[in-house]
Amino acid sequence: MLATVLHAPGDIRVEKVPDPQIQMPTDAIIRVIVTCICGSDLWPYRGLDQIGPEGRRIGHEAIGVVEEVGRDVHTLKPGDWVLMPFCFSDGTCEFCQEGLHTACIHKGFFGGQVDGAQAEAVRIPFADGTLYKLAEPADENLLPHLLTLTDVMGTGYHAAKTARVMPGKTVAVVGDGAVALCGVIAAKKLGAERIILLGRHPNRIALAQKFGATDIVSERGETAVARVKEITGGWGAHAVLECVGTELALQTAVQITRPGGSIGRVGVPHHQGIPADITFYNNIFIGGGPAPTRAYMDILLPDILAGKILPGLVFDLSLSLQEIAKGYRAMDERQAIKVLIKP
Amino acid sequence: MLATVLHAPGDIRVEKVPDPQIQMPTDAIIRVIVTCICGSDLWPYRGLDQIGPEGRRIGHEAIGVVEEVGRDVHTLKPGDWVLMPFCFSDGTCEFCQEGLHTACIHKGFFGGQVDGAQAEAVRIPFADGTLYKLAEPADENLLPHLLTLTDVMGTGYHAAKTARVMPGKTVAVVGDGAVALCGVIAAKKLGAERIILLGRHPNRIALAQKFGATDIVSERGETAVARVKEITGGWGAHAVLECVGTELALQTAVQITRPGGSIGRVGVPHHQGIPADITFYNNIFIGGGPAPTRAYMDILLPDILAGKILPGLVFDLSLSLQEIAKGYRAMDERQAIKVLIKP
Fold first, then answer.
1. Which of A23, A335, B72, B151 is the 20 to 30 Å CA partner of B33?
2. How many domains in chain A?
């Protein structure tokens, strides 16, 4: 089959690789209907994360059709349509039962512990626990929206939940990537009264406004902090969604959080740590981490099926698998928000 | 009057100083009935916090009797018995109304922005908002318990609340100082099933057990982490109360927190910051900061009056104001848990 392999920073290729095989009785193999490129795929693409000597089989978001199941897979059969969350999980451990699948005692990440999803097919460990079965084959128009449930929409929702967004509160969203934009959707769903987006790209701002952002701050650093404070009566936002992971994003987040407020951070941390004093003296809560998107599918899928939320609008470029290098370039250069890939 | 002045690390004296005067119409002057030495007073005493060229008028916990009030003080009159929280607050701003008095827009700390309470009398800014009026003069036997409401018991409670202690959960308390011991009381009050104290001094351990600790870990560093994990089935505690503030205490706290669990930190931070990766990948919540002890008095006072909690047992040495230097030495050398001072 064909699969994407990241060989070195900036060097990404689609290659012929061996077809995935059932290795454990709890495995399934899915054929990929749609996959996509994630902002976090840019970390290794830019050389900021390890790649490994044999290259990295990358990608962690997919909608697929089950092709084959191991003998201990009981809830899925060939032909089932499924959502593949970025993290695999056994579905039975105490953490999965609590809804924190990303802390599963058997967890691992696609494109990390196992091969990635930017390919024609993927091997799925713990298929019963990992995959979310759709009731029926997905309508073509729904595919982009459903695909966001495997990562960005679930991650934006996690940011909003861990930032304790509540009805009537003021929310600030740091970043204007796909996760941040989904964070706006989540903040609105959770009842935020005012949603401030910190972003600078006109098309992303337009989308944020469509999703529910009420205020836009396009400055950066200290100027951005001052603007948010001005908008919020001097004290900052009750809930801040940190959707980037850089030092600047984190520093901005802690400075625009109202005393007693909360930060939900979902940007993979590429910074020195959380500053101790300002968060302590302002009694700021900090939450977040890898989102249990598997758990949030139950909450968010009905909204998508009912047309209440349209997170798939974050996809502004659609390419074939063969063209994926073009997609990485477009995202790296911020020409595209998020790129949909059809194998 | 007589007051305590810290002149340099280890150099603490009781001196004659001018009597406090009403400076603002919202001020009151209280005569100190009892005050005490706090673990956080040891930071400047040990030279780890600024003292200032003219010395520092230290202390921030007191029970007093109102002697005089400014013309804009409306809820207090001379003769009233009051609890003085470590932080003054106007009682009317949005933060005070939300119960986060330590974020009051007019806040300040006794022994910091204004003179300290280890003295015969104290000037109280925003007396109506700051002071908590007792219904009647306090019984001599209740004084130590009531005094803990001004800081350590309220702070231990804040640690437990921000660590999201809930019924049936496993709690770990890092530290065996007075705040940590009060954290044990708070964890028990909030329904913790198992309370692990990380401490090593036999008399403190005995008190922790009396307060409700079910397990004691006296190792430090990696060994302590391993012990807590062993006790908790491999995953750590749901709620961790960080009651010290050092690098070692923080690192221990983040390592013994169960994925998805929470840390309530109330030890004044004297460390580099909160590690990003472990807290992110384990979806750990971090909360805490200066405790709004003013708000918690309503919750905790009834328990003291009913004899349900006995936080005053943390006082194991009682001295006159004149003897206060002896008290600092005893706490510095960990000969005493907490020292009560009677002017």
1. B72
2. 2
Calculate how close chain B gets to A292, using CA atoms only, in Å: 10
Strand spans (E) along B127-214: 132-133, 170-174, 194-198
Cβ proximity of A340 and A54 under 8 Å: no
A109 interfacial to chain B (CB closer than 8 Å): no
Q: What's the rounded Cα separation, in Å, for the pair A91 and A99? A: 9
The residue out of B288, B310, B334 marking a domain boundary is B288
Q: Are residues A307 and A259 in the same domain?
A: no
Determine the 3-state secondary structure of A137 from DSSP. coil
Last residue of a domain, one of B247, B272, B288: B288
Pair B123, B204 in one domain: no
Chain A interface disruption, residue of B235, B283, B294, most A CBs within 10 A = B283
Exposure class string for B75-90: b at 16+ Cβ within 10 A, else e:
ebeeebbbbbbbbbbb
Residues B15 and B111 in one domain: yes
In a shared domain, residues A7 and A144 = yes
- State which H helix or E strand residue B150 sits in: none
**Dist. CA B101–CA B108, nearest whole Å:** 10
ipTM of the complex: 0.96
Question: Measured between CB atoms, does B79 come within 8 Å of chain A?
Answer: no
| Rg, Å, chain A Cα set | 19
Place of tokens 């910190």: A198
Rounded Cα distance between B174 and A170, Å, is 34
What is the enclosing helix (H) or strand (E) of A286?
A: strand A285-288
Mean pLDDT over the full length of chain B: 97
A264 and A338 in a single domain? The answer is no
DSSP class of residue A318? Answer: E
CB-based contact A287 B285, cutoff 8 Å: yes
* CB-nearest partner of B260 from A98, A265, A274: A98
Domain that holds residue B210: 154-288
Task: Give yes or no for a contact between A151 and A86, defined as CB atoms under 8 angstroms apart.
Answer: yes
Closest by Cα among A26, A30, A35 to A133: A30
Q: What is the pLDDT along chain A (343 residues), one digit of tens a residue?
A: 999 999 999 999 999 999 999 999 999 999 999 999 999 999 999 998 888 888 999 999 999 999 999 999 999 999 999 999 999 999 999 999 999 999 999 999 999 999 999 999 999 999 999 999 999 999 999 999 999 999 999 999 999 999 999 999 999 999 999 999 999 999 999 999 999 999 999 999 999 999 999 999 999 999 999 999 999 999 999 999 999 999 999 999 999 999 999 999 999 998 889 999 999 999 999 999 999 999 999 999 999 999 999 999 999 999 999 999 999 999 999 999 999 999 9
Q: Are residues A28 and A133 in the same domain?
A: yes
- A194 and A116 within one domain: no
pTM metric for this prediction: 0.96
The CATH number linked to A60 is 3.90.180.10
Residues B39 and B174 in one domain: no
**Domain of B244: which CATH number?**
3.40.50.720
Tokens of A308: 């209440």
